[in-house]
């Protein structure tokens, strides 16, 4: 490997064009430190190999080639495995049996070797009666905990690879007898050329030395209990040959090696049995996961649950209830280059698999179906995705949308009933007090009192109000082959929604104006010095937020300086808006009859409205229980609403006259009009050579989608104006000039 340079307890490599391991050039590189000053995939393995901290700035661009990267990772894994096995051996408190084997002399008769298999022909009971054991054959020393030199023989023992772990008292006595007999016979040995120490397990068969009855040796100095070796019996010699490497790997603590030997076994029965056991584990986890009583997030298909859908919750369910299945899927999805996996993709794949097992586990498919529906996917597309398991079918999606529609209608009914109850209690209180409004004298109409005189009413407890918004939805259908009967079609629909008020204003009176217009001074509508000071303060806050966002030196003020304007209702306005979709009516608001039907459809959600039959029978000119709800839209929509009201002035009841709905102009096109005024004033093609103008900056940054008509591309014009404003403020900030 390349020799690194040590500097301040950190190392760095001087050559960035060569591999730090083999010092060769290779195109396939695993960077240690990337060019963006981030850690590369080879950072961990190089730090592990050198056992030193790496300097980041000096090692930018250093890399390891693909061959060395794989080799170093293999070395790292082997070293970690060696350390784990070493810790297991050192932490164990088992007793070893060491057999010291000496070379036989020429005069010593041969003794047949005992077979390791538990076969009846190899047991000592079938030994020839004239056969004896040589006194120079073996010598066994019992060593507890570690290997030392033999007391009866002048030889050094080698570390044993097999431990003696007898399981019962009979085998313990048997090992002691064998050890004592071998030690006695080893003491009479006179000629020894060379000693050889081996560690082998004691045979579970009965001892051949039945006549030698010696007492069991005890280690009084250590006081530790002796643990003896357990024996394993095989049904056949073939099975013993096949499973011997597996048992040996398990005895050494290498479970991974044992499983590898089983799966790579040449025996088909062993392979199939192991696969069957793994399948049973996965089957058990899937059965538990697919139970309807589990209450997992994959089973939650209601509208409220789909609104709060979160993929991380699905991941936690798989990790907790199906850990083996999750481990298999993550390992299959792990990239060989980055050694990482995408959790979202793994979770999505498992959701598709589980949906094929149980049709109730399809919350992810519902979310995908709704997303595709919002992005104009056709019916044929849903059928393809449903067959692949990625989405629900088109019919299932329609059922879910119908349930959502019913849910929205029930939500609107609840808001309507709450306002109706509040209106009824207010009328009862007014009848008791014999007063319909709060007395406001004209003399108090100073210092903006017309807007603050009823501020005490805003703090009264009242249910949340709401308003309606409608807008036209127009599109053209162009035919490819036009004939006399097959022409282009222009569709005009109306989209409706309800918005819940974040600031409660239901306690304000609607029976009288808050002030007399004749008594209000004209100066009340002109900006005062206080208004100018407030505007300047707001502009300072806007500019400060831009500087904090883009200049690194101002980042320290990010958590200190407020990002929003503070006012009386800041807490309410910080909440998320509640928008209730009311569907699309196939009505054209440009037609008076269609506009009347649209208002009649919305009037069913007005608090206190009476059914049509009840209103016909009563024929009252006024319905005190009905509370008017604003209907907002652009200028053209408000004009159509006023035209519908004029057409129904001759109605007999307030419901027929559509008095439950009042018009309100929404600022739908306010920003477009403001941008259009800016483009008309500052965007001129004749100023292409004048530095700093909008048209010159547009050409410099090649924003060709910016045109003078703001309504043609609203988002392009708006982002361009924001970009130019930010650039001008930042240039002034860099120059150090005062902005205000």
Descriptive overview:
There is one protein chain. This protein is an alpha/beta fold. Among the domains are: 5-88, no CATH class; 92-104 and 132-231, no CATH class; 277-392, no CATH class; 670-735, no CATH class. It has helices at residues 43-50, 66-91, 169-187, 237-251, 255-263, 268-289, 303-307, 311-321, 323-333, 343-357, 363-374, 379-388, 394-433, 449-452, 455-458, 529-550, 570-573, 592-603, 612-618, 635-647, 670-682, 694-700, 714-735, and strands spanning 5-7, 10-12, 29-31, 53-54, 63-65, 95-102, 138-144, 195-198, 466-477, 489-500, 579-585, 629-633, 661-665. Strand 1 (5-7) and strand 2 form a beta hairpin. It is extended and about 110 Å long.
Strand and helix map with partners:
Elements: E1 5-7, E2 10-12, E3 29-31, H1 43-50, E4 53-54, E5 63-65, H2 66-91, E6 95-102, E7 138-144, H3 169-187, E8 195-198, H4 237-251, H5 255-263, H6 268-289, H7 303-307, H8 311-321, H9 323-333, H10 343-357, H11 363-374, H12 379-388, H13 394-433, H14 449-452, H15 455-458, E9 466-477, E10 489-500, H16 529-550, H17 570-573, E11 579-585, H18 592-603, H19 612-618, E12 629-633, H20 635-647, E13 661-665, H21 670-682, H22 694-700, H23 714-735
Parallel strand pairs: 2-4, 9-12, 12-13
Antiparallel strand pairs: 1-2, 3-5, 6-7, 6-8, 9-10, 10-11
Helix pairs in contact: 1-2, 4-5, 8-9, 9-10, 16-23, 18-20
